[in-house]
C-alpha cells in the first residue's frame, strides 16, 4: 500500500495463522516406545513502514548527446 504521494509504503506479513506448526510421532527403543505431540508457536505478525525522502529523479539522466560527440572518442 502506497500513501502520501508514493513516499510512504506499509507492509504486513503474517505466518502460521492457523497453528499448523505441529509435530507428532513415535520413537521405538529396545526398552519401550516414546510418543510425542508437539506444537511450536510460530505465529507471527510483522508490520513495517518505509518512507522515502528526497528527489526520485537523477539529474542528468535525460541529457541528449549528439551522435558526433558520442563517436569522437572512437
From TrEMBL:
This is Outer membrane protein beta-barrel domain-containing protein. Residues 2-51 form the Outer membrane protein beta-barrel domain.
Amino acid at each position: 500500500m502506497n500513501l502520501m504521494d508514493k513516499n510512504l509504503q506499509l507492509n504486513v506479513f503474517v505466518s502460521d495463522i492457523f497453528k499448523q506448526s505441529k509435530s507428532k510421532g513415535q520413537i521405538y527403543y529396545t526398552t519401550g516406545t516414546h510418543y510425542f505431540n508437539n506444537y511450536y508457536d510460530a505465529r507471527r505478525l510483522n508490520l513495517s513502514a518505509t518512507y522515502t525522502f528526497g528527489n526520485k529523479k537523477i539529474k542528468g539522466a535525460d541529457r541528449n548527446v549528439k551522435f558526433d560527440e558520442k563517436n569522437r572518442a572512437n
